[in-house]
Amino acid sequence: MWKDRLPGLVAEFLAGHDPGRLGRTDFLRARFDAGLAWIHHPVGLGGLDAPRELQPLVDAAFATAGAPDNAPHRNGIGLGMAAPTIVRHGSPALRERLLRPLWTGEEIWCQLFSEPGAGSDLASVATRAVRDPGGGGRTAGWIIDGQKVWTSLAHRARWGLLLARTDPDLPKHRGLTYFVCDMTAPGVEVRPLRQLTGEAEFNEVFLTDVRLPDDLRLGDVGQGWQVARTTLMNERVAIGGRPTPREGGMIGVLARAWRERPDRRTPGLHDELLRLWVRAEAVRLTGLLVRQRAAAGDPGPEGSAVKLSYAALTQAASGLELELLGADGLRYDGWHMRRPDRVDMLGRTPGYRYLRARGNSIEGGTSEILRDIIAERVLGLPAVPRADRNTAWKDLPR
Ligand SMILES: Cc1cc2nc3c(=O)[nH]c(=O)nc-3n(C[C@H](O)[C@H](O)[C@H](O)COP(=O)(O)OP(=O)(O)OC[C@H]3O[C@@H](n4cnc5c(N)ncnc54)[C@H](O)[C@@H]3O)c2cc1C
After folding, report:
1. Which end of the chain has the smaller Cβ count within 10 Å, N or C?
2. How far, in Å, from the CA of 196 to the mean position of ligand 1?
């Protein structure tokens, strides 16, 4: 039984690997190689083919021993979106090259999907990938040209998940191909975009004659949309279905404010707090369910419901926190331009939380789009008419 075996495996590993002597990175690499990183992954890819639900047991055993962790908050796109996409669609060589430094946090990832003319309608992306026959000292591959926008953490990223158009003559969903973009390649330019909170968590990324070898392609040529769906479904689970303890996350912050400020309590605020508490518990438990499905390979469209509910809940809770704290809640921790290396809603001021939460209903698919997905794919309601599905992308009005 895995449940009985895993604590012994962790203890054995710790006995042979002293983090103080090895240093953080070597310790994490060794943990990956021992299959104790993502225990549900295949052997050789950081796992042991063990049941995913036992991962918290392993993580807790390492934490109790005071071992360093892989700082998951710094590489949310890598861990939550890139890893499942690479595992499902990557070649053996790509999996071997990319997964270990992704898990250890040595290589940070970003997502090069949205463009100025393609956000909700992601299948419209215009960034071109054209075959490069090679020659003259160059290996054959692809030449990428285009502009991406709202690219979170591109300023820290070593790799990007890139959706590009390889055949403009085909209808929009069919002419796409998915690549891993080397963010250090010549022609990749990252410029900060300052947002409502004052800082630049995201960027615009200009890709000019960027050359990528063909072995950085994920999935077949023309199959980019299918690969992107894996990323998007996992993104919604990563944003909305994070493992959270009971009364953790934003609802925990709110409950603490309630306990600490008896002077500000009113029956109306109490009712609202309890309503949000119940909603938070429903989102948390549904998140558990979709995470289990994601581990089995397909989070399914229900991940959209979790992300939709999470966004609404976070916005309501951060608003109620401001009401509860009154003038104190309006203090802000500085509207100066910074380029953070993580999004930390809980560790910041109430004012930051309130402003940052506005983005929750936009990032990873807007709430309007998620409602369409739920209507069609969960509730089985008639699909929104889409007149452009069979027209060549190049003939669509833009
Ligand atoms: C904090 C943050 C981080 C982000 N990080 C990344 C990232 O790392 N990588 C990345 O690629 N992107 C990222 N994004 C971009 C995000 O995915 C897009 O903003 C989002 O998909 C919406 O696209 P858009 O901004 O082009 O808005 P649009 O698609 O132009 O939408 C504008 C409005 O119209 C509504 N709308 C559009 N189409 C429909 C429709 N068919 N039916 C009903 N309503 C509709 C939308 O809901 C929205 O309210 C991030 C966004 C935010 C806010």
Report:
1. N
2. 15
Q: What is the pTM of this model?
A: 0.95
pLDDT confidence band for 15 (50 / 70 / 90): very high
Among 235, 272, 302, 321, the one annotated catalytic? 235
Which atom of ligand 1 lies at the shortest distance from residue 110's CA? Answer: 8
- Domain holding 309: CATH number? 1.20.140.10
Per-residue exposure over 219-246, b if at least 16 CB sit within 10 Å of its own CB, e if not: bebebbbebbebbbbbbbbbbbbbebee
pLDDT in tens, 34-50: 999 999 999 999 999 99
- The parent domain of residue 57 ranges over 1-69
- Count CA within 13 A, CB hemisphere, residue 91: 12
- Ligand 1 pocket: which of 207, 366, 374 to mutate (most atoms within 8 A of CB): 366
> Ligand 1 — pocket residues by CB below 6 A?
110-111, 113-114, 119-120, 150-152, 202, 359, 362-363, 365-366, 368-369
pLDDT tens by residue, 127-183: 999 999 888 888 889 999 999 999 999 999 999 999 999 999 999 999 999 999 999
| Domain termination site, one of 201, 221, 241 | 221
